[in-house]
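Hey, quick one: can you model this chain's 3D structure?
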Amino acid sequence: MQRIVLQRELGTDPQVDPVMSAETFNELLGLVRRIYLPDVVGNYIARLVDATHPGQSNSSRHIRYGASPRAALALASGAKARALKQGRTHASFEDVKAIAPAVLRHRIVLDYNARVEGHHTNDIVRALLDEIPFQDTATPKVLKQSI
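Sure thing. Here's the predicted structure for all 147 residues.
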């Protein structure tokens, strides 16, 4: 990357050495597509992206514009790729949580007051991850009473 930055001239393409062949890359993409994304993980992704919109969560109070559906698609693909990298055949909540900052931080826009107060999108994404539960189910009454 440093070489690209230092040697970049307008109108010329940088020289970048390939790290894998196009065939290998396409094979990896095919494997990622075959990783299973459970419905509950897909639901979590949808609720997490929805929570980035103003008024949809406590953590969104400083957000002017939330993430688009493309963010949800990126979270799903990224979670599947992470699962593959770790040798698993299914994506998990932890995969989504691990990649969410990289996927969401540039897809949300903070409001003016948040920027003036020094808030950063990384902080908001962390708060969203803490706020949104993995599963969207109510705690059974029996368990609530024992807590």
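One thing worth noting: The mean pLDDT is 89.
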